[in-house]
Amino acid sequence: MGNPRGFLEIERSDLRHRAVCERIKDYEEVALLPTAESSREQGSRCMDCGTPFCHWACPIGNYIPEWNDLLFHNKWQRALEILGATNNFPEITGRLCPALCEYSCVLGINDDPVTIKQNELAIIEYAFRHNLIKARKPKSRTGKSVAVVGSGPAALACADQLNKAGHRITVFEKDDKVGGILRYGIPDFKLDKKIIDRRVEILRKEGIKFVTGANVGVGVKVDTLKKDFDAVCLACGSRVPRDLRIEGRELSGIHFAMDYLVQSNRIVGGERVKDSQVINASGKRVVVIGGGDTGADCVGTAHRQGAACVIQIEVLPRPPECRTPESAWPKYPLLLKTSSSHEEGGERHWAVLTKRFTGKEGRVKKIACVKVDFSKKDKNSCPLMQEIRGSEFDIEADLVILAIGFVHPEHSGLIEKLGLELDNKGNIKTDPCYMTSAKKVFAAGDARRGQSLIVWAISEGRRAAHCIDKYLMGRSDLPGI
Question: How confident is the model at residue 2 (pLDDT cuts 50, 70, 90)?
Fold first, then answer.
């Protein structure tokens, strides 16, 4: 720890954002990268806390105090090495991770926590700017080959780790470009797709082969995959959306969030979409159902498309703005989050239950809602949702986006043809070593654990890679996390 009084002398300084009036006119990244000097100052706030709970809270076990100290001392190369030891894609987590670590920062007990997430971003972007990131091929090959199905964060982390171990890796992606949810599910104003392309190019130079437009289980036979490769890892995500099966659901103008975001990302990326299929918020009254990050992404996208107004509703009550006894430090608290999209306008409403959709000439025009209360509990002490009598109201809507999560991976095709055993939630079931019910077929990421965070996907990919390497070689030098 270079400055023992850093946390006493320097206040937390969050990333600055581009002006709202400017950024809603384009899809460029909202956040402005920190300067090297401000990052050094923020790194000095990391205190000698003895037990780094930030490390404990991080799903990939980042060595946070170590690289904060190196950052403060201007030792960027060494900070990069320490950061890369646990995180394959810090340029992704530095932009998208909800920073579980910061909520467990010891300084956060009675002060603002260290800016861990943006310090991580500062290190990796400094490294790219100063040409410290170079492709490094394995010194030798094992003669073993692994097929990775999917190219999201879990798949890419798994592929990267196994390639480092010397195996020949082929990544199969059913879409036209690599990246999975990172490319098609995250708007460019949060993650510029050049960031993905930059990393994928490095992985290619290091020897990983990418095959796009390859829908395994449909266009690519699973038997061929099992025959041609020594192991297979399924990291195909959890893409089946949760639906809202209520009266009027059949009306046009009601879309799943991922359909809306994927199409928007394709258009922003220069792809053409038939006019009859375009989902556009321009001049429309938009209602986003679901209060999570995906819903917020839809809000930001609607703003950029020129929506007349945007309302986001959530069935759960409004979260508190500070910790409650139920979420005491160092637990990750369910607090009110205001994203950059919310800063750009629109309304947010909590404890609202959607009852039915009504329309005109086959198109949605209104949403019938009612306020709900969660103050009472059932016999298991779980909150009980009750409708508040007399609180019924309507919201006018020309475009409704359902952002209420995902239920499980797609079963038809790959999973079905492999005959894989599923858990009680419909996810791919594995043993503790990430192997599925099919021999030499492994699974990782959302397809295995269900919808989760990007940092957990990277963790899953790394853990699966360790298990696959051990399966192929009898032992593994890859980290188990």
Answer: low
Q: Calculate the average pLDDT of the chain.
A: 96
Q: Could you give the strand order of the β-sheet that contains 254-256, starting from the edge strand earlier in sequence?
A: 254-256, 399-402, 285-289, 309-313, 347-349
CATH 1.10.1060.10 fits 6-129, yes or no: yes
The answer to whether domain 243-404 has CATH 3.50.50.60 is yes
Q: What is the DSSP letter of 122?
A: H
Q: Look at the alpha carbons of 12, 16, 20, 26 in this order and tell me if their dihedral is positive or negative.
A: negative
pLDDT in the model for residue 1: 61
* Separation of alpha carbons 47 and 334, rounded Å: 25
H/E element holding 183? helix 181-184
Q: Class assignment of domain 145-239+407-473?
A: alpha beta
Q: What is the pLDDT of residues 392-402, one digit of tens each?
A: 999 999 999 99
For the stretch 78-130, pLDDT in tens is 999 999 999 999 999 999 999 999 999 999 999 999 999 999 999 999 999 99
Task: Give me the helices (H) in 274-360, please.
Answer: 293-304, 340-343
Q: Name the residue among 398, 177, 98 with its Cα closest to residue 185.
A: 177
| Mean predicted confidence (pLDDT) in 249-270 | 97
Structure tokens at 268: 């922003």
Angstrom distance (rounded) from CA 347 to CA 205 = 46
Which of helix, strand or coil describes residue 275? Answer: helix
Same fold yes or no, 145-239+407-473 and 243-404: yes
